[in-house]
C-alpha cells in the first residue's frame, strides 16, 4: 500500500486510523529521542509517511519523526496487526526441552526453535500459545506458565511476544509439512548449551524462554 504524503490526511487514511485506534504505539513520553509528529507537520520532501504495507499479520509504517538532532524525516517500524502480538512456548518433557527444526524464509536457512506464532485479531496470548503448540507439535499444553516478554528487534519492530513454558507428558507423531518443520528434538540443558556454543541455536525467542526458565528453576 502506498504511503501518504505530508498533506493533511482524511479520517479514512489507514495511518490516522491506526493512530486513533492504538494511541500507545504513537506516544511521545518525556525525553523520547524520536518524537512522532502529525503527518501535516512533517517535511514533504522526506516522505512518504504512513502505512506502507499491510497483510493479515504485520503492518509496516513510516512515521514522521523529529530526530535527536532536530531534523524531521521518516522512521520505519513493523507493527503486529493483533494487539497481543504473539506467543512463544517452551515445551518441557522431564528435564528436556522440545525444539523444532524450522525452515525460515527470511534467513533462507533452518533454525532450532520453540513453537511460536502471531496472534489472530482478538486472540489472547494464551489462546495463541495453545493454538501454536497444537499446530506445531500436535499436543495441547497442560497448563501454561507465563515467563515474560521479549522484543526481538527494538530498533525496527514494535512487536512484543509473550513467552510461556508448559510441561508435556510425551510427543506423538504429527504431520508438520505445512509448517516447514523438518525435525523435532528433545535436548538437555547441557545439549542446549552445546547448540548455543556451536552457533546452531540463534533463535531469540528460544534463548529468551530458556533464560527465563532457568531463572525460575524450571531448567537446570
From TrEMBL:
**UniProt GO MF annotations:** pyrophosphatase activity
Q: Which cofactor does it need?
A: Mg(2+)
Region named Disordered: 1-22
Q: Which residues form the Nudix hydrolase domain?
A: 52-209
Residue intervals passing through the bilayer: none
Q: Which InterPro entries match?
A: Nudix_hydrolase, NUDIX_hydrolase-like_dom_sf, NUDIX_hydrolase_CS, NUDIX_hydrolase_dom
Family under the similarity heading: Belongs to the Nudix hydrolase family.
One Pfam family named in its UniProt record: NUDIX
Q: Which GO terms describe its biological process?
A: nucleoside phosphate metabolic process; ribose phosphate metabolic process
Question: What is this protein called in UniProt?
Answer: NUDIX hydrolase
| UniProt source species | Actinomadura syzygii
Stored SUPFAM superfamilies: Nudix
**Protein keywords:** Hydrolase
> A GO CC term?
cytosol
Amino acid at each position: 500500500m502506498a504511503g501518504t504524503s505530508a498533506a493533511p490526511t482524511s479520517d479514512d487514511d489507514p495511518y490516522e486510523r491506526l493512530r486513533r485506534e492504538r494511541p500507545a504505539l504513537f506516544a511521545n513520553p518525556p525525553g523520547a529521542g524520536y518524537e512522532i509528529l502529525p503527518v501535516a507537520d512533517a517535511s514533504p520532501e522526506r516522505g512518504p509517511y504512513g502505512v506502507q504495507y499491510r497483510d493479515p499479520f504485520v503492518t509496516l509504517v513510516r512515521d514522521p519523526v523529529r530526530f535527536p538532532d532536530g531534523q524531521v524525516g521518516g522512521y520505519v517500524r513493523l507493527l503486529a496487526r493483533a494487539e497481543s502480538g504473539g506467543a512463544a512456548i517452551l515445551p518441557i518433557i522431564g528435564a528436556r526441552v522440545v525444539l523444532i527444526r524450522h525452515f525460515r524464509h527470511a534467513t533462507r536457512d533452518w533454525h532450532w526453535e520453540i513453537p511460536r506464532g502471531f496472534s489472530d485479531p482478538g486472540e489472547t496470548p494464551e489462546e495463541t500459545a495453545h493454538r501454536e503448540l497444537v499446530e506445531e507439535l500436535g499436543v495441547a499444553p497442560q497448563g501454561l506458565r507465563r515467563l515474560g516478554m521479549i522484543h526481538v528487534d527494538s530498533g525496527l519492530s514494535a512487536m512484543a511476544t509473550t513467552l510461556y513454558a508448559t510441561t508435556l507428558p510425551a510427543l506423538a507423531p504429527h504431520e508438520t509439512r505445512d509448517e516447514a518443520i523438518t525435525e523435532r528434538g528433545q535436548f538437555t540443558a547441557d545439549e542446549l548449551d552445546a547448540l548455543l556454543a556451536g552457533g546452531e541455536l540463534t533463535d531469540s525467542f528460544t534463548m529468551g524462554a530458556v533464560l527465563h526458565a532457568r531463572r525460575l528453576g524450571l531448567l537446570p
